[in-house]
Amino acid sequence: MINAMARPNGYRCLAVKTQGEAMARPASSRSADIHAAALELFTRLGYEATTMADIGAAVGIRGPSLYKHVASKQDLLAQIMISTMERLLAAHRAAVATTDDPTERLRRATEAHVRYHARHRLEAFVGNREIRCLVEPHRGRVLALRAEYEAGFRELIRTGIGAGYFHVASARLASYAVLDLGMGVAVWFRDDGELAEDEVVWQYSEFALRIVGAQPAG
Questions:
Q1: pLDDT profile of the chain (218 residues), mean per 10
Q2: Which among 8, 120, 170, 177 has the fewest CB atoms less than 10 Å away?
Q3: Cα–Cα separations (whole angstroms), residue 190 to 185, 205, 214, 217
Q4: Is 28 helix (H, G, I), strand (E, B) or coil?
Q5: Which own/partner contact pairs does 211-218 have at CB distance under 8 Å and 24+ positions apart?
Q6: CA 61 to each of CA 16, 70, 74: distance values in angstroms, whole numbers, following the listed order
Q7: How wide is the angle at C-alpha 57 spanned by C-alphas 54 and 63, nearest 5°?
Q8: How far is C-alpha 200 from the geometric centre of its chain's CA atoms?
Q9: Residues 16-63: tens digit of each pLDDT
C-alpha cells in the first residue's frame, strides 16, 4: 500500500486537523461493528462524503451514543490504516522468520503480501484512496509504517543481491514493483473468480522472483 489510487472526479478531502484523538483499536463487539461499517462506507461513499450519522445508522446507534465507542471519523480512518499496516508487518515478519534462504524468504514475503491484499480488498482500497485525508499525527504514523514495510522488502532484495542470488540494478525499484503486485490484486481479485487464491499467490511469488532476476522453481 504505497501508491494512491486515482480519485473519482469531483472528490475532495475536507479533513480538519485534530488534537489528542484517542487511537485505541476496536476492543468490543460494538466497536468492531463500527469499524466494519466505517470501512464499508469509506469504500462506497468516500471518507469526506461519509458522516458519523451514516456510520451510526449502519450499526443502529444514534447521535452522541456513537462517541462512547469512537472519538471521531478521523480516528476511525486512522484505525483502519494503522491496523492494516501493522497486520502486514506482522505477516511479513512471520513469513521471513522461517528460513534463511534469500530466494525462499522473498517468495514467502510476497505470498503473505499478496494473500493479505486478496483477503482484505476494502482495507487496501481505503488505505490507498484516503491517505490524503489523514491529519497529523496519524498521517506521519501511517507513512512511517509504510516506509518500514517497504524497507523490509528492500532489505530482502539487497541481501539476495549481496549473496549472489538476485541480479537487479535497484533494490528499491524492485521492492516497489513487488509491492505493486499485491496492491493490484486487491483491485481485481474476487473469491468466486476464475483463479483461486492459492493459484494467484503462487504465481505472483514467481513474478517477484523474476523481477529480482532469481531462478524460479520449475
A1: 38 41 52 92 95 92 82 94 97 96 97 96 93 94 97 97 96 96 92 94 96 75
A2: 8
A3: 9, 19, 29, 27
A4: coil
A5: 211/168, 211/174, 211/177, 211/178, 212/106, 212/157, 212/160, 212/161, 212/166, 212/167, 212/168, 212/174, 212/178, 213/166, 213/167, 213/168, 214/103, 214/106, 214/160, 214/165, 214/166, 214/167, 215/103
A6: 24, 12, 18
A7: 85
A8: 18
A9: 433 333 343 444 688 889 999 999 999 999 999 999 999 999 999 887
For the chain, the C-alpha Rg in angstroms (whole number) is 19
DSSP state of 19: S
The length of the chain is 218
Rounded Cα distance between 203 and 208, Å, is: 9
